[in-house]
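Hi team,

Filling in the usual template for the complex we talked about on Friday. All components are listed, including any nucleic acid strands or ligand strings, so the model treats them as one assembly.

SUBMITTER: L.P.
PURPOSE: interface mapping
COMPONENTS: two
RESIDUES: 482
SEQUENCES:
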Amino acid sequence: MPLELFLDLYSPPCRAIYIFARKNGIPFELRPVDLGRGEHLKPEFLKVNPLRKLPALKDGDFLLAESVAILLYLSHKYQAATHWYPTELQARARVDEYLAWQHTAVQLPASNVYLCKSLLPHFSGQPVDPVQLDRLLGKLKPALQHLDGEVLAAKPFLATEQLSLADLMAFTELMQPTAVGCDIFQDWPRLAAWRARVEAALGPELVQDAHRLVLQPRDPQDAQRDPKLAQELVQRLLERLS
Amino acid sequence: MGLELYLDLLSQPCRAVYIFAKKNRIPFELRPVDLLKGQHLSDAFAQVNPLKKVPALKDGNFTLAESVAILLYLTRKYKVPDHWYPQDVQACALVDEYLAWQHTALRRSCLRALWHKVMFPIFLGEPVSPEMLAATLAELDVTVQLLEDRFLQNKAFLTGPHISLADLVAITELMHPVGAGCQVFEGRPRLAAWRQRVEAAVGEDLFREAHEVILKAKDSPPADPTIKQKLMPLVLAMIQ
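RESULT (copied from the run log):
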């Protein structure tokens, strides 16, 4: 059985893994898991990841969760080009530093913006709450300020002089609010330039392919399919965003 | 100038770095940064870490933040025993998995437990509603149970038969609510046994030394008003 990657391309870390695997010619079976339909809560997926989260990897009997762990595993196992995760000690440490920092500094606030702008309105049928959106954008601002004002002032990519796993993770995370109409690049020129460099390095077609789903407007009918699930989701989202 | 480690043992990730460096006899200069006095907000410290957080490392001109990155840097530079971060790709991946998961899971719960139960009322003089405290402790309970059921299970250590960076990071996190008076190991014999094994592997004296500060957290004198004003917004941002 070849490598299986359990992904939902609505999710930024899933997109990072998808892009990485495709870019590096890693052979894999894509196992789509539709979060919006609660497929991650089904018994079959529980066997893959008891924490019910995406992304997840299955390599024979070996199961692995957490996007950072999966990217590192794929880098090592398939001997990806060294720019992704440099061999030099200090360069590698810079990538590790970003990958650790981003969980709470980037991923959390960026996904909250997305949830407020897109997922919550979609499932609740209510319009976006502009006060809440503004507050959540404010929570993302320190990270953007740091990346634009400090990190990218010193170098072209986030960790080193070349594209690395840090850029890949950051790119898919920052595309999340952007794809649904909150262009977080517009106030940050170095970040905008970095985004263009990353897209060019990854390949525009691959980037477009990975982002196809999240760039599409959601079909309102989707939310009505399972009203009970929608209601539960709305409840959890409201708690999370409060 | 050799390796410098900027630490405050009040902080969980600082304890992990301290124990790791000491256990592996890594020569370093300890640069204490007193968080409760706001020393991490100084201009001098901003030269080491512009994000104004501990732990931070300085090795010649090279500065590094983030405990996981620091632990990995030390692992590689000082060629520590393999069990801390195995060469085997799958064994290593399991350590990476834990180190990634913990940022928004155990770290968060443990930090909130300490601040809601002890630091807000005692150090900052800000009451915490019983509902908020109850919710935080309930969340801690769930996360600790996850640690046991999903990661430890029936193994000797979190990712296999030997102690790794995962165990060190986890145990130093759990000592945060312990310092706050939460009995996280009570009613959890598997986890309690794991704790004993980790302490024994690290060395009881070193473990005790690293945890002196957190175990006295309840005795923190109240913050003076200037400090409190400086720290409040940062603390609120940190624990949300």
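MY TAKE: Chain A touches chain B at residues 50-51, 62, 64-70, 72-73, 76-77, 89-90, 92-94, 96-97, 99-101, 103-104, 108, 146, 150 (CB under 8 Å). The domain at 4-77 of chain A is CATH 3.40.30.10 (Glutaredoxin).

Thanks, L.
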